[in-house]
């Protein structure tokens, strides 16, 4: 494990705060007044829309009440000075070889952030999210990341409805403002729905953006509209575990792009699951090896620095039943021995034998607790 200087970790944390604060200040200075509203016993902040040409603009969702958001909406720093400071901070972090997105990913992230996607609790997942964990945790990951030519953005369907807000333009139009070559790739099941948003060169995909949404309950059509994002999302199993209780981060592009990413311990445990779903082809097996490298890199530091958080999410995942346990334990079997043993020592629930013949009945008496 290669630790970063404490000064680098502190600089990154300061940039996260300044980037999120700056995004709220810019929104408020564009016109409007913050107000708090109680919904089902929980307080949320919104921005009352200002008047434009005799019409009141739509109210904007700011987020659930808490010390951070109260600080961000009451700060009144000089935005020009703050922007200069943020540019210098991003430059310093990149000079320290902290991972940063490729230019296309950076532009897409910046555009989505300005459009409000992360304010409305969209969550970046995949390798772009993984890049943020090194400075967040104060370590340098060797050979565990890389550019992938895609970007994944996830949101709970319930949150997409509950925020009562949306992007100003539909999702495809928002992406076209980054590069007019973005096109909607229709679902093979329902041509009226979009499966992927992509830039193609000939038949090859040069860059793609996927909207994702958790699939819970019985199997059904795998594409659904997300109201807040004004686009279609792919429904995926296990995603609800990944994006629950997301965390604030910043991507090192431009001024520093405020984004939301999964909690690192959830990302690591989720990678163990998906690594066992990618075994059909040589390409999918390569992705599975990458999943395990990322999980191992994260767990090595998390077991030392955030053991109780790992213990909580590991046992939460195991408690969801035999199907989850089988994938988790087989995924853990692909980790280096010290990491695997450290993780398995945290197990508090009764587990099945992951290598048991699935055709034989499980006589352990452990009920399936999937939800």
The geometry reads as: globular
Name the poorly predicted regions. 357-371
Total separate domains? 2
N to C succession of SSEs: EHEEEEEHHHEHHEEHHEEEEEHEEHHHHH
Terminus-to-terminus distance: 36 Å
Number of helices: 14
- Biggest β-sheet: count, sense, barrel? 7 strands, mixed
Protein name: Nucleotidyltransferase-like domain-containing protein
Domain Nucleotidyltransferase-like: 105-318
List key phrases describing it:
disordered C terminus; globular; 2 domains; 7-stranded mixed beta sheet; 371 residues; alpha+beta; 3-stranded antiparallel beta sheet
Description:
This protein is of the alpha+beta class and about 375 residues long. The chain folds into 2 domains: about 1-260, no CATH class; about 265-370. Helices cover about 40% and strands about 20% of the residues. The protein contains 14 helices and 16 strands. The longest helix is centred in the N-terminal third of the chain and has 24 residues, at about 5-30. It starts with a strand and ends in a 27-residue tail after the last helix.
Topology readout:
Layout: E1 2-3, H1 6-29, E2 32-39, E3 42-49, E4 51-52, E5 55-56, E6 60-64, H2 67-74, H3 79-95, H4 103-115, E7 123-125, H5 127-130, H6 133-137, E8 139-140, E9 150-154, H7 157-162, H8 171-176, E10 183-186, E11 194-201, E12 204-214, E13 223-226, E14 231-236, H9 239-243, E15 247-251, E16 257-261, H10 264-275, H11 282-305, H12 307-318, H13 322-332, H14 337-344
Parallel strand pairs: 9-12, 12-14
Antiparallel strand pairs: 1-8, 2-3, 3-6, 4-5, 7-9, 10-11, 11-12, 13-14, 15-16
Helix pairs in contact: 1-2, 1-3, 10-11, 10-13, 11-12, 11-14
């Amino acid at each position: 494990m290669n630790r970063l200087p404490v000064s680098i970790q502190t600089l990154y944390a300061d940039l996260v705060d300044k980037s999120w604060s700056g995004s709220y200040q810019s929104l408020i200075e564009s016109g409007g007044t913050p107000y708090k509203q109680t919904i089902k016993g929980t307080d949320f902040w919104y921005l009352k829309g200002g008047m434009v040409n005799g019409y009141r603009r739509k109210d904007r969702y700011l987020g659930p009440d808490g010390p951070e958001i109260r600080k961000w909406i009451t700060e009144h720093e000089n935005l020009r000075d703050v922007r200069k400071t943020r540019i210098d901070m991003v430059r310093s972090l990149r000079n320290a070889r902290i991972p940063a997105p490729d230019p296309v990913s950076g532009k897409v992230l910046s555009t989505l952030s300005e459009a409000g996607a992360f304010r409305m609790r969209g969550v970046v997942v995949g390798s772009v999210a993984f890049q943020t964990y090194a400075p967040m945790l104060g370590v340098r990951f060797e050979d565990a990341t890389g550019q992938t030519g895609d970007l994944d953005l996830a949101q709970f369907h319930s949150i997409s409805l509950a925020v009562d807000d949306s992007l100003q333009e539909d999702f495809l139009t928002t992406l076209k403002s980054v590069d007019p070559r973005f096109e909607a790739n229709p679902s093979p099941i329902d041509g009226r729905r979009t499966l992927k948003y992509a830039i193609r060169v000939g038949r090859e995909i040069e860059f793609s953006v996927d909207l994702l949404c958790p699939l819970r309950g019985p199997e059904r059509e795998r594409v659904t509209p997300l109201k807040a994002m004004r686009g279609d999302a792919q429904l995926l199993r296990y995603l609800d575990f990944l994006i629950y209780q997301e965390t604030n981060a910043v991507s090192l592009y431009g001024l520093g792009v405020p984004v939301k990413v999964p909690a690192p311990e959830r990302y690591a445990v989720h990678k163990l699951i998906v690594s066992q779903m990618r075994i059909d082809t040589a390409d999918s097996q390569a992705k599975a090896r990458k999943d395990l490298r990322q999980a191992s890199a994260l767990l090595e530091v998390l077991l030392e620095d955030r053991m109780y958080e790992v213990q909580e999410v590991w046992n939460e995942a195991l408690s969801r039943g035999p199907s989850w346990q089988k994938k988790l334990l087989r995924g853990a079997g692909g980790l280096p021995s010290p990491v695997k043993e450290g993780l398995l020592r945290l197990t508090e629930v009764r587990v099945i034998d992951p290598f048991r013949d699935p055709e034989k009945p499980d006589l352990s008496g452990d009920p399936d607790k999937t939800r």
